[in-house]
Amino acid sequence: MPAREMRMEMFVRALLRRDFSRAKGHLEKLIKIAGNDEWGRGYSRAVEGIMNALKDNDADSLVVQLISANDRERAEELLENYSKLATQDFRDDYERGFYTAWSEFLKAYLSQKTLA
Hints:
The chain is mostly helical. It is built from six helices and no strands.
């Protein structure tokens, strides 16, 4: 498993345990791995948004709704959709990075033995 995907797994586990200080450490490493080009900025923006929504328990955010409802089926649909979006050639690098982060997050989320 590539380093970024392993780090995403650790990030997701920390988030599901609501261990935000540990999640922040994983987030910083994810951002460093992603880099500072357009793709990396899109990726970073997505993971920061995911963490902030969970930390703030923002009931209007997709990720909080998904985890609160423990909706595997919806997560699988989103994973399929975001994976397609991440590979579409007409999307710019920022968008591809953003949707790649979401795809990796959802894949790691779905791989957890016990979901939140």
